[in-house]
Every structure is written in C-alpha cells, then in structure tokens.
C-alpha cells in the first residue's frame, strides 16, 4: 500500500531538482564544508566538525539520486550523480592540498575513528535516510538538520584526502568505505521511502522488482565487510573483558590489576599485564595462557609482571612499585602508539616495525606505493618523523624503488637528487652504480653519495650520468 495522502509529489520533485544539481552555491558550500571538516579533524574538535556537518552540501545530490532511482528518471540520476561525484572530487582534492601544506599531519582520534566502519554505520545511515527523506516529503525541514549531523558525509571525504596526502592507504581505504556506505545507503533508502510515498507509481511491476533487487543487493554487499569489522570489534571488547576476568580470578584476594595491554593484530595475540600482589606466583603465565586459549579459542602470548605489595609503613613499598610500574606502562603505551602510527603511515603491519626503546628509534620498510619514487618515500619518512616527536624514524623504501635522475646544471651536480639517492642507498643497504658522463663526473657523484653514508661504485662511460642499483654480487667500494 502506498502512503500518498497529503503528499504534493510535483512540489517535492521540483524542490529536489532545484537543490540536487550542480550550482555555484553548491560548489561554494563544498569548499567551505571540506575546509571546516579538515580543521575539525586535525585540531581535533567535535564542535568544529558539527559545523561542517550542518552545511552538509552532499546530502541533496544523494537524496536526488535516490528519488531519480525511485522514479526511473535518468535525467535526474545523471544530474545528481554528476553533482555528487564532482563535489566529492573537489572535497578530496582540497583536503589533499590542505594536508600537504599543513605542518600538522598527526593521526588524531577523530581521523582514526573514521577509518573502521561497521554495520552500525550502515544502520545509522539507513535510519537517518528514512528520517531525511520523510522530512523532505512532508515538508519538515528542521528534521534534516539532525539527519545531517547523524550521517556526517563530509568528514569521511576529508579523511580520504588525508590518507592520500600522507600516502596512508589504510586510512584511505577505511574512510572511502565509510563514505560509500553512507552515500549508497542514503540513496537506496531514499528511493525506498519515495516509492512507499507514491513516487514512481506509474512504473511496472518489473521496474519495482529491479528497484527492490538493487536495494537488497546494494545493502547486502555493503553488509559483508561492515559485518566483518563489527565482529572483530565485538571480539576485541569481549576478549578484553575475558582477559581481565581471568587475571582477576587467578590473583584473588588483595591483588590488583594495574595495567592491561592487548595487541589483537599480533599472531599469537599479545597480552601484557601488571598485577600488584602480596604473593608472587611463578606459574601464573602458564596457567593463564592455557585458560585464555580455552576462553578465546585462539593462541595467546601472555606475560604478567607481578609486583609484590607489602603492608608495612602504610604500603610504601607497594606505592613505589606501583609508581614505577605505572611509569613503565605509560612508556610502553607511548611506544605502542608510535609503532601504530608509523605502521599506518607506511601501510604495513605493526609487527613489521622494529623498535629500539633505549635509543627511541623506529625502523621499518614502507609498503610499495604505486607511482612513488625515492623522493616520495623520503618525504614519507620526513612526514613520519614530524608526526612522532621524540623518536628517530628510519623508514626504508621498498627494494624495487627507482633511483632519481642525476644531472648537471651548468656543470653542477643536482645535489637534491644526490641526497635522495644517498638516502635510499643508506636506508636499503644497497650499493649504487654511477654510469655515464666523464670519469671525473662519475667519481664526484660516487664520492658525494659515499660522503652521505651510502655506498656507490663507478660504472660504464656510456650515455649521460645515471644511477642504478648494483646487483647483489657487486662489490661495494666507494669512489672511482
């Protein structure tokens, strides 16, 4: 049964046609909303982000796309889709430029929170789209403001731009999935609400069947990765609760759990805990490991730091031990956050990051990024160093990275290319062959690379000056 009473279909369609296409006002709001979103993400500030959500310029093209699907209006579908794609592209490009110029490129909590969408995000988008489409059809515009805040279309696009600018494909892919989830769910749900209210009533049963199949199929496909993510998050919450319960049950009485850290991505799952206890139990690790394997159904690597608490002098010893343990735990937490941030920037697993806690040095090899040369990987390392103050970061490029072109400008060697090549050689530990030019030029380039901590050998005299990786068996000798 269609709900058609009191609905002015023509007026609603005229309003949608006026607001869902490309206009100068729409482009202006896209730019302003994207800029506000990015500032809110980098600061980070929820209040600023809400300001960007209130503008919500992308909402009407998506609603227009949904109504176009409901009425099979190909002209409206093209108009709305053009405005949506163009507006999204502008927002992403603006975000990339803004982040590239910004001295702050830290992964804030607001950014990280938009890189792991779940089935709950789909449900929020679906219910919000029902409310938004209903408000539009019934002329209750005030409801749309709350819907805009609930869905928040622009911040995920700003995070997509952040991921591109920082060459962090984990952030890029997660935020892209969140935006697509919101956009597709809103469009399909708006189409369903429109059909229920009598829009597209002239269509045949076959058309209606196609629309139902599109709705079910689209949301069904989105539900697969989102459901998997939700399942993982639910497991992590349950696992943390079970680990806490197991440790507290084992150390009963006056013992107290002081610190708990779990690395869910490690294989086996890594668990580190600190317990204040009046009696040291040397069997605790073995017993708890076995118990948690049974509870969680997967292998774990657990270690409990047991600190003896005494009651003399009001527990002074316990307090001192607890303070020392808390300081250690705090340092461990900062180290784990640094490892996680570097892994995100480099597009690798946290297990691939090597840590020297004494010298506060992080070492890793970046994932292969399409189209990125040695200059790009060096810039990525510099970005990581700025994002991780207090740590020395050595982020090597992948072994197949291309070396920069080396040339002479009025007889002077390109020092920027020379420094980039030396950096790549030092980070990878591979020798560089200098070919072409004169013998003096080859020797000068090889010496310049050697002076900057890498290894270079002179090669053939054919052609202009060029750099190439030496084969593995090449004997590494610097200079000519």
Describe this structure in words.
The chain is mainly alpha-helical. The protein has four domains: 195 residues; 84 residues, no CATH class; 53 residues, no CATH class; 62 residues, no CATH class. It has 16 helices and eleven strands. The strands form four sheets. A three-stranded mixed beta sheet has the order 1-2-3, with helices on both faces. It has a three-stranded mixed beta sheet with strand order 4-5-6. A three-stranded mixed beta sheet has the order 10-9-11. Helix 14 links the parallel strand 5 and strand 6. The termini are far apart.
Topology:
Blueprint: H1 9-19, H2 24-42, H3 46-55, H4 59-71, H5 74-101, H6 109-112, H7 119-138, H8 142-151, H9 154-165, H10 169-196, H11 205-250, E1 256-263, E2 269-277, H12 284-296, E3 300-308, H13 316-346, E4 354-356, E5 361-365, H14 374-387, E6 392-396, E7 408-409, E8 412-413, H15 415-428, E9 431-435, H16 439-451, E10 455-458, E11 466-469
Parallel strand pairs: 2-3, 5-6, 9-10
Antiparallel strand pairs: 1-2, 4-5, 7-8, 9-11
Helix pairs in contact: 1-4, 2-3, 2-5, 2-9, 3-8, 4-5, 4-10, 5-9, 7-8, 7-10, 7-11, 9-10, 10-11, 11-12, 15-16
């Amino acid at each position: 049964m269609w709900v058609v009473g009191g609905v002015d279909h023509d007026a609603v369609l005229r309003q949608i046609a006026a607001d869902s296409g490309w206009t100068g006002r729409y482009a202006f709001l896209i730019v302003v909303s994207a800029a506000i979103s990015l500032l809110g993400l980098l600061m980070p500030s929820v209040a600023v982000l809400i300001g960007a959500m209130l503008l919500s310029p992308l909402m009407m093209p998506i609603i227009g796309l949904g109504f176009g699907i409901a009425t099979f209006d190909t002209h409206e579908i093209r108009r709305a889709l053009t405005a949506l794609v163009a507006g999204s592209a502008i927002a992403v490009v603006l975000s990339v430029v803004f982040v590239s110029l910004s001295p702050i490129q830290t992964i804030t909590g607001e950014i990280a929170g938009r890189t792991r969408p779940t089935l709950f995000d789909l449900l929020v988008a679906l219910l919000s789209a029902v409310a938004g489409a209903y408000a539009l059809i019934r002329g209750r515009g005030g409801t749309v403001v709350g819907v805009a805040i609930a869905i928040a279309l622009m911040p995920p696009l700003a995070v997509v731009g952040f991921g591109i600018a920082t060459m962090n494909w984990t952030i890029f892919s997660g935020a892209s999935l969140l935006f697509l989830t919101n956009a597709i769910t809103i469009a399909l749900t708006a189409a369903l609400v429109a059909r229920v209210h009598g829009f597209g009533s002239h269509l045949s049963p076959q058309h209606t069947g196609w629309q139902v199949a599109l709705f079910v199929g689209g949301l069904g496909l989105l539900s697969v990765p989102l459901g998997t993510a939700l399942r993982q998050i639910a497991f992590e919450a349950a696992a943390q609760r079970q680990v806490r319960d197991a440790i507290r049950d084992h150390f009963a009485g006056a013992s107290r759990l002081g610190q708990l850290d779990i690395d869910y991505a490690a294989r086996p799952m890594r668990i580190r805990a600190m317990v204040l206890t009046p009696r040291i139990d040397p069997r605790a690790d073995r017993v708890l490991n076995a118990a948690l394997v049974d509870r969680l159904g997967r292998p774990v690597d657990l270690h409990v730091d047991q600190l003896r608490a005494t009651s003399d002098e009001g527990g002074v010893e316990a307090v001192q031990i607890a303070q020392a343990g808390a300081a250690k735990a705090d340092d461990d937490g900062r180290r784990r956050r640094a490892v996680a941030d570097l892994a995100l920037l480099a597009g690798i697993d946290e297990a691939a990051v090597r840590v020297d806690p004494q010298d506060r040095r992080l070492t890793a090899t970046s994932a292969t990024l399409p189209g990125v040369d040695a200059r790009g990987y060096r810039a990525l390392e510099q970005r990581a160093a700025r994002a991780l103050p207090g740590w020395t970061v050595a982020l090597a490029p992948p072994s197949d990275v291309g070396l920069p072109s080396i040339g002479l400008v009025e007889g002077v060697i390109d020092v920027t290319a020379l420094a980039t090549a030396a950096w790549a050689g030092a980070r990878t530990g591979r020798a560089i062959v200098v070919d072409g030019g004169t013998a003096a030029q080859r020797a000068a380039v090889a010496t310049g690379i050697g002076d900057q901590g890498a290894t270079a050998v002179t090669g053939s005299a054919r052609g202009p000056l060029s750099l190439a990786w030496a084969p593995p068996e090449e004997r590494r000798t610097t200079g000519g």
